[in-house]
Amino acid sequence: MTTTAIPAEGLTISAAAEVSGLTVDTLRYYEKEGLTLHKPERSTSGQRRYAESDVRWLGTLVMLRRTGMPIRDIRRFVDLYRIEGSEPDRLAILESHREHVREQLREVQTHLEAIDRKIDFYNTKVMNK
Amino acid sequence: MTTTAIPAEGLTISAAAEVSGLTVDTLRYYEKEGLTLHKPERSTSGQRRYAESDVRWLGTLVMLRRTGMPIRDIRRFVDLYRIEGSEPDRLAILESHREHVREQLREVQTHLEAIDRKIDFYNTKVMNK
DNA sequence: ATTTGACCTGGAGCGCACTCCAGGGTGAAT
DNA sequence: ATTCACCCTGGAGTGCGCTCCAGGTCAAAT
Question: Does A97 touch chain B if contact means CB atoms closer than 8 Å?
Answer without folding.
Answer: yes
